């Protein structure tokens, strides 16, 4: 923990872990900035701030944390905040990071919600929102495509995607039962010892 | 009528369903917030979610608006804590234990197995939303247009959602 203070720096290490000096306030501020500026998806902004600008995590760690974030329930943005905050300053770091990243968007959507409730039925707002909703559908589909390219480990995985969609949208099994049933099936399919042909990246 | 306990129950429950992203919980969110508790209508839910895509930060901040409608400022805060609290605690615990699991062979299996399921849940959420959002040729064209542009070019998605708003005003304004 405190060995950074005990060992005198013989020479400037190229990858000096600055993590010991990061304060809770710095963590909060940095995640607040990410939370306020990350239009159109948080991950690139997280990388820019945490890896490139502040060197709080290195690139390999970042990818590792992102893959943990994606396997867990919770949004990537908030899971990343918790993981990075924990690494830097433990529980308080996690709390500072998640509040920081959520605060700007939450305040904005609070105001938008009130405004929408009062003015949501104006003709031009209804018209604009129709376009916005359609665009959002396209955006989600593009996320589906890019996630499929990145995180699938074989052609057979498309069967699990199809099963999941059928279970939720056709059979109306509900998300929890689908998650357990298809999830277990898929995990068993990818069971240890069966991954000689591992082509997916992290 | 006090909605706070219901808000806590619903959003804490939705929280644990968000495997792979917020959209995974969307079908269940529709059932609970629209059909069961009637905090808002389906078109309103779609509108809030879509507008939320233009906001910075985690992309499910539209839940704040639902909380505000159902329970005022307290409702908004409660919803935030209920929705982000449980998964944050889980992520925190995993952050501590994950390194120890590095040698555990099932770790990779879980990651590889959950990847297609989370993509499936995202797609299922997308279809649920499309049922309300894609109402004709024009909306379908906007969705496909955005999809193709995003697959082809590196452009900020929030800008395309904004472009959708402008297209919407021109296409759907009653003359």
Q: How many strands, which pairing sense, and closed or not: the largest β-sheet of chain A?
A: none
> Residue share in helices of chain B?
over 70%
Euclidean distance between termini CA atoms of chain B? 41 Å
Helical segment count of chain B: 7
Mean pLDDT across all amino acids of chain B: 92
Number of strands of chain B: 0
Supply Rg of chain B.
Answer: 18 Å
Q: Biggest interface and its residues per chain?
A: A-B, 103 and 107 residues
Unreliable stretches covering 5 or more consecutive residues of chain B: none
Give the percentage of residues in beta strands of chain B: under 5%
Radius of gyration of chain A: 21 Å
The oligomeric status of these chains comes to heterodimer
Order of helices and strands of chain B: HHHHHHH
Separation of termini of chain A?
29 Å
Question: What percent of residues of chain A are in strands?
Answer: under 5%
- Class by alpha and beta content of chain B: mainly alpha
* Number of distinct helices of chain A: 8
Main sheet: strands, sense, barrel of chain B: none
Low-confidence runs of chain A: 1-14, 196-202
Q: How many domain modules of chain B?
A: 2
User: Any idea what the shape of chain B is?
Assistant: globular
Account of the protein in words:
The complex is a heterodimer of chains A (202) and B (175). Chain A has 202 residues and is mainly alpha-helical. Chain A has a domain of 119 residues. Helices cover 71% and strands 0% of the residues of chain A. Chain A is built from eight helices and no strands. In chain A, helix 2 packs across helix 5 and helix 7 packs antiparallel against helix 8. Chain B has 175 residues and is mainly alpha-helical. Chain B has two domains: 130 residues, no CATH class; 42 residues, no CATH class. Chain B is 75% helix and 0% strand. The N and C termini of chain B lie far apart (41 Å). Chains A and B meet through helix 2, helix 4, helix 5, helix 6 and helix 7 of A and helix 1, helix 3, helix 4, helix 5 and helix 6 of B.
